[in-house]
């Protein structure tokens, strides 16, 4: 089934070239079907790149998925044009009276700040509080996952000695959880962050399930027992080249970043990396849409 996106969204041409079935609003209104409504709060600086990455993963479902994008009103992104935001994004004030089947809150490059120091923290907490009653299930990614653990469950992050960047091996802790149904017992996933969350506090919390973890990258997939929240501390949505782009960006800034672990062939930044986490990413997003969104949302929502 197709994924519905705003007409003329630049990601549409990229996805069409990949033979991903998409449709715009005009075509979608002819479909006699109850589509899933997914809201994406995009906090990433490279918004158009993140749009494409998430839409690609949301497309791999037998369900029709309608996607809307949300931006913060309290902070203006410096890496996207105002015209792009005006054309393809909404503010919280525009959607606060609506209901959505699912929502994604992305990561953001602010993990070295205390939560209350983040420019849009008050707005984000208002949105997260609103999601309790207006969204069936929310997927939180990277810093978004850390923010959710802090706001909803009182679990704070801690700073790492050095940035965790690379492709790390993970193992399933609770393979029976539907989010990872069909996943391998061990799998790879990318990480890119300066902070982590305490595994023991997650395991000891009565409302949370630690689904998967990594010896080197720490807790990876956490779900709430009521299925309301899915927290992924890494970046399954990343393209093969994304970690490399971040690495070379840091070099250009005059920083001295570590080469991402197990990412470039032979640890040579001049060589092209491969995407070794794609199948797991598609499966997890598909499972979320099916088990946590579609099967939990009332038809008349």
UniProtKB/TrEMBL annotation:
<feature type="site" description="Important for acyl-CoA specificity">
    <location>
        <position position="111"/>
    </location>
</feature>
<feature type="active site" description="Acyl-thioester intermediate">
    <location>
        <position position="142"/>
    </location>
</feature>
<comment type="similarity">
    <text>Belongs to the MetA family.</text>
</comment>
<keyword id="KW-0808">Transferase</keyword>
<feature type="active site">
    <location>
        <position position="237"/>
    </location>
</feature>
<feature type="binding site">
    <location>
        <position position="249"/>
    </location>
    <ligand>
        <name>substrate</name>
    </ligand>
</feature>
<dbReference type="Pfam" id="PF04204">
    <property type="entry name" value="HTS"/>
</dbReference>
<feature type="binding site">
    <location>
        <position position="192"/>
    </location>
    <ligand>
        <name>substrate</name>
    </ligand>
</feature>
<keyword id="KW-0012">Acyltransferase</keyword>
<dbReference type="GO" id="GO:0008899">
    <property type="term" value="F:homoserine O-succinyltransferase activity"/>
</dbReference>
<keyword id="KW-0028">Amino-acid biosynthesis</keyword>
<dbReference type="InterPro" id="IPR005697">
    <property type="entry name" value="HST_MetA"/>
</dbReference>
<feature type="active site" description="Proton acceptor">
    <location>
        <position position="235"/>
    </location>
</feature>
<keyword id="KW-0486">Methionine biosynthesis</keyword>
<keyword id="KW-0963">Cytoplasm</keyword>
<comment type="function">
    <text>Transfers an acetyl group from acetyl-CoA to L-homoserine, forming acetyl-L-homoserine.</text>
</comment>
<dbReference type="InterPro" id="IPR033752">
    <property type="entry name" value="MetA_family"/>
</dbReference>
<protein>
    <recommendedName>
        <fullName>Homoserine O-acetyltransferase</fullName>
        <ecNumber>2.3.1.31</ecNumber>
    </recommendedName>
</protein>
<dbReference type="InterPro" id="IPR029062">
    <property type="entry name" value="Class_I_gatase-like"/>
</dbReference>
<comment type="pathway">
    <text>Amino-acid biosynthesis; L-methionine biosynthesis via de novo pathway; O-acetyl-L-homoserine from L-homoserine: step 1/1.</text>
</comment>
<feature type="binding site">
    <location>
        <position position="163"/>
    </location>
    <ligand>
        <name>substrate</name>
    </ligand>
</feature>
<feature type="site" description="Important for substrate specificity">
    <location>
        <position position="192"/>
    </location>
</feature>
């Amino acid at each position: 089934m197709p994924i519905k996106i705003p007409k003329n969204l630049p990601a549409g041409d990229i996805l069409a070239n990949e033979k991903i079935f998409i449709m715009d609003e005009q075509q979608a209104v002819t479909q006699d079907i109850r589509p899933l409504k997914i809201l994406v709060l995009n906090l990433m600086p490279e918004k158009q790149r993140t749009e494409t990455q998430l839409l690609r993963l949301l497309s791999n479902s037998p369900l029709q998925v309608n996607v809307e994008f949300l931006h913060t009103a309290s902070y203006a992104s410096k890496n996207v044009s105002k015209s792009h935001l005006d054309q393809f994004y909404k503010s919280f004030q525009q959607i606060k009276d609506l209901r959505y089947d699912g929502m994604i809150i992305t990561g953001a490059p602010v993990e070295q700040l205390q939560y209350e120091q983040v420019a849009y923290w008050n707005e984000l907490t208002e949105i997260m509080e609103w999601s309790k009653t207006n969204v069936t299930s929310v997927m939180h990614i990277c810093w978004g996952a850390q923010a959710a653990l802090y706001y909803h469950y009182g679990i704070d992050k801690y700073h790492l000695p050095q940035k965790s960047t690379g492709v790390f091996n993970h193992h399933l802790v609770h393979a029976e959880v539907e989010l990872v149904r069909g996943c391998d017992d061990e799998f790879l996933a990318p990480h890119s962050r300066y902070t982590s969350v305490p595994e023991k506090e997650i395991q000891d919390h009565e409302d949370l399930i630690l689904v998967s973890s990594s010896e080197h990258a720490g807790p990876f997939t956490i779900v709430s027992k009521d299925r309301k929240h899915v927290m992924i501390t890494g970046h399954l949505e990343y393209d093969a080249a994304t970690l490399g782009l971040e690495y070379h960006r840091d070099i250009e800034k005059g920083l001295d970043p570590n080469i991402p672990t197990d990412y470039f062939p032979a640890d040579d930044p001049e060589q092209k990396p491969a995407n070794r986490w794609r199948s797991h990413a598609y499966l997890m997003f598909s499972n979320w849409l099916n088990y946590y969104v579609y099967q939990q949302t009332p038809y008349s929502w």
